[in-house]
UniProtKB/TrEMBL annotation:
Stored Gene3D superfamilies: Carboxypeptidase-like, regulatory domain, TonB-dependent receptor, beta-barrel domain, TonB-dependent receptor, plug domain
Domain annotation TonB-dependent receptor-like beta-barrel: ranges: 329-749
Membrane topology: Multi-pass membrane protein
The protein's name: Iron complex outermembrane recepter protein
Length: 795
């Protein structure tokens, strides 16, 4: 009986094995017969699918015998289905006809660089972002791009995160979404925590280092990030992404799209939820977001409505970790009040039109509106009533001048306007000319409330102890052109005029009346050339950027001593090359700053630290990045940047509490390093693909020493660090799925103890020799070895 069952099982096994068939084929463009790379192939009713390789070829394995319908689709082409009978001995060829649709790429073309643009850039597409996206924020996903240093307050990449590019922080990095400004108009910052899981709705992002081709929004003083949101898909789809990781991190994302309806309309939507306890004690994040886009796609025009929103609640870990706790208590959090949280929601609405007029002209116009509101709540121990414009409390014969309180500090703002451009391309293709501009208004309310006091006295809940408002109008007009003066040689010019009107009035949080108005007009020219020879493009450019002070520079300084605007002169020169299996980019940059604003330790008349202009400073460096395919299964990639970042002359102010009457001691430094600007930043990625469905990546990151201030004092610095991550991805096409992918990311696999961000302050106190200098350093430690596991299902 056992032999009978064994024989039957073997027969069934061999029968099943022989009944499974393999289908080979190719997908090409109908008019040119060129291969279509990445075209989707689907065997209906089998759950089997794949995509074409670099030669447009595909293999579908484990298919059943008999009749079968196979479908091929590719963005911008009509889908084709063929009915075949397996076994099928020949190669199945799909010849797809292109659809006559206007490309959505023009939506971002006015802010983007192309191969002929003489600037330094890198574009990361959707597939590359998807490999890294397991719920962490945008700065963490961009960590392995050239000259980038990312950091996280909570230590695990979820919650408040940030990045620096070439040592410039987010307030100096211009960010746009579909060409629409993203930076906060007053602080110039971008708060990625307000946009959880935004990467899941990004088609691609271009990082331009230096001034680049930025036109809209805040001035670029270090780099720019240009995001394009999801473009149209021709086929209906649905995706579910779930993930889990260390520190009780969870991610849930659902995406769906209609595909192209009636050959003209498409709707896409996403819902996301991300939660994490954080590496730092109590530094939890509770994040949610949604994204919806709907469009009309005609032969000569696209009309698209894009709306997205993010809502966050995070427990504060802004204080950082004191130096004496670095060794033994890296998760320590200064805050203990149970609702010491930040709460904010930001809604974005964009109405975009792009159209083609005749054979030479294209137009683009976008209307936008952003509504943001929220607060952070704080417990304050024994605060003076005077700090809140409140009277002392009398209980019997006792006069109480201070109390424990809970306060909320609010932002309530509106940002709206339009951006637009017109593009002309000559018949011979030699001239590519754009003229455009934009006008945007920011209307922001700032106010604070006392919601509880241990000794309340004659007060009411939500009494506002400060209230002020600001209005900022930002207008610009520009023209830019690329002209091919001889085969392969292009010249580029870009002229922009930007005008700013900023007015503010009311009571500041330090109880000072801050009423003022400032107007600026900036002229920002850019010139350059590129030369294409064979598989190389050589380029060089000179660009100017001017930047107005931020809100705190106005409100913290005495109004009669407002800092001067900053100016940047930027030179970029480099080469981009592709040769077979080897691609590389090499560039030199020199960024010369005039009147750069930095913290010096000087305080205003109510004790707030202010920024001051330094006459001369610069950044100069060499950046190298490339990739080499060693074999069909091994690929090596990486980048490294070497730089010098200097201030010609810097004056430091140190508080002196060793004397009877408070004063500040002054120290002067020459040729000193700019804070948070490491001289070496590099990363490497080794990719191993033993099979078509399996990918193993080793990711390494090195960041050199960073100084916490501008004194080049190693006692006030962040140590260099070297981290290593391991990413394993496996994809399959099981029955009932168009795709199934599992991603495992092990971060900091060697448990490196490192801190990419921090701050410092020093002061004199009475000591044995009259006075003693005390320096307090605070750090933001990142998590040791941790993991994220994600499962993606596509239907």
């Amino acid at each position: 009986m056992k032999n009978l069952w064994l024989s039957l099982a073997l027969c069934l096994t061999f029968t099943a094995a022989f009944s499974q068939q393999q289908l080979k084929g190719k997908v090409v463009d109908q008019s040119t017969n060129s291969p279509l790379i990445g075209a989707a192939i689907w065997a209906e009713g089998t759950g089997r699918g794949t995509v074409t390789d670099t030669e447009g070829k595909f293999i579908l394995a484990r298919l059943p015998e008999g009749k079968l319908t196979v479908k091929a689709s590719y963005l911008g082409y009509e889908s084709v289905s063929q009915e075949i009978t397996l076994p099928y001995a020949d190669e199945l060829v799909f010849s797809l006809e292109s659809k006559d649709f206007l490309s959505e790429e023009f939506i971002v073309s006015a802010t983007r660089a192309s191969e002929s643009t003489p600037t330094t850039f890198k574009t990361i597409d959707k597939s590359e972002l998807a490999k890294r996206n397991l719920g962490q924020d945008i700065p963490i996903l961009l960590n392995f791009t050239p000259s980038v240093v990312s950091h996280s307050d909570a230590g695990a990449g979820v919650g408040y995160t940030g990045l620096r590019i070439r040592g410039s922080d987010q307030t100096r990095i211009n960010a746009t979404i579909n060409g629409i400004p993203l930076n906060d108009a007053e602080s110039h910052g971008v708060f990625w925590v307000n946009m959880p899981d935004f990467a899941s709705s990004v088609e691609n992002v271009q990082i331009q280092r230096g001034v680049g081709t930025s036109t809209n929004g805040a001035a670029t003083f270090g780099a720019s990030l240009n995001f394009q949101t999801d473009t149209r898909r021709d086929e209906a789809y649905a995706e579910v992404n779930n993930g889990f990781g260390s520190f009780n991190t969870w991610r849930h994302t659902v995406k769906a799209g209609t595909g192209l309806l009636n050959n003209r309309f498409a709707v896409d939507a996403r819902l996301s939820k991300i939660t994490s306890d954080g590496f730092v004690d109590r530094a939890f994040s509770d994040l949610s977001s949604w994204f919806v886009s709907g469009g009309y796609y005609g032969e000569k025009s696209v009309i698209k409505l894009v709306a997205f929103s993010g809502k966050e609640q995070t427990y504060q870990s802004w204080w950082g970790l004191p130096e004496d706790k670095l060794e033994n208590d890296r998760t320590w959090n200064y805050y203990t009040y149970d609702n010491e949280t930040d709460n904010y929601q930001q809604d974005h609405y964009q109405l975009i039109y792009t159209g083609q007029v005749g054979s030479n002209w294209k137009t683009n116009l976008a209307l936008h509106y952003t509504y943001g509101r929220g607060y952070y709540e704080q417990f304050r121990e024994d605060d003076d009533f005077a700090s809140y414009n409140l009277p002392d409390v009398t209980i019997g014969e006792e006069v109480i001048a201070s109390s424990d309180i809970i306060r909320r500090r609010w932002l309530d703002n509106d940002f709206y306007g339009f951006v637009g451009s017109v593009n002309y391309i000559s018949d011979n293709g030699k001239l590519d000319w754009i003229i455009g501009g934009g006008a945007n208004r920011y209307d922001g309310g700032h106010f604070g409330e006392v919601i509880w006091a241990r000794f309340a006295g004659n007060t009411n809940i939500r009494d506002r102890y400060y209230d002020n408002n600001a209005i900022k109008d930002d207008r610009n007009i520009y023209t830019k052109a690329t002209y091919e003066i001889s085969p392969g040689l292009n010249v580029f010019g870009d002229l922009q005029v930007r005008g700013i009107n900023y007015s503010f009035e009311g009571v500041n949080d330090d109880q000072r009346v801050v009423n003022g108005q400032e107007n600026y007009t900036f002229f920002n020219p850019k010139f350059g050339f590129s030369y294409e020879k064979g598989n190389r493009t050589y380029y060089a450019s000179y660009a100017v950027a001017n930047r107005e002070p931020t809100r705190s520079d106005f409100t913290d300084n005495p109004i009669t001593e407002v800092p001067r605007p900053e100016r940047l002169n930027n030179i970029e020169a480099g080469v981009r090359a592709r040769s077979g299996d080897f691609t590389y980019n090499a560039n030199f940059y020199y960024m010369d700053y005039k009147d750069q604003l930095i913290l010096t330790g000087q305080i205003n008349n109510v004790g707030a630290y202010i920024r001051e202009n330094v006459a001369s400073s610069y950044r100069a460096g060499i950046e190298l990045d490339g990739a080499y395919q060693l074999s069909p299964v091994w690929t090596l990639g990486g980048n490294i940047a070497f730089s010098q970042n200097k201030i010609a002359e810097f004056t430091e102010y140190i508080d002196d509490y060793s004397v009877e009457e408070f004063q500040q001691e002054i120290f002067t430094y020459t040729d000193t390093d700019i804070a948070f600007s490491p001289n070496v930043v590099g990363s490497a990625i080794i990719e191993f693909n033993p099979t078509k469905n399996l990918s193993v990546n080793w990711l390494s990151k090195y960041v050199g020493r960073q100084f916490l201030d501008n004194t080049s004092n190693e006692n006030r610095s962040l140590d260099a660090f070297f981290t290593n991550d391991l990413r394993i991805s496996y994809s399959a096409q099981p029955r009932y799925f168009k795709g199934l992918e599992v991603n495992l990311l092990i971060n900091n696999i060697f448990n490196e103890l490192y801190e990419p961000n921090g701050y410092t302050f020093s002061y004199f106190v009475p000591g044995g020799n009259g006075r003693e200098l005390v320096t307090e350093n605070f750090y933001y430690p990142q998590a040791g070895t941790n993991f994220l596991l994600g499962v993606s299902m596509k239907f």
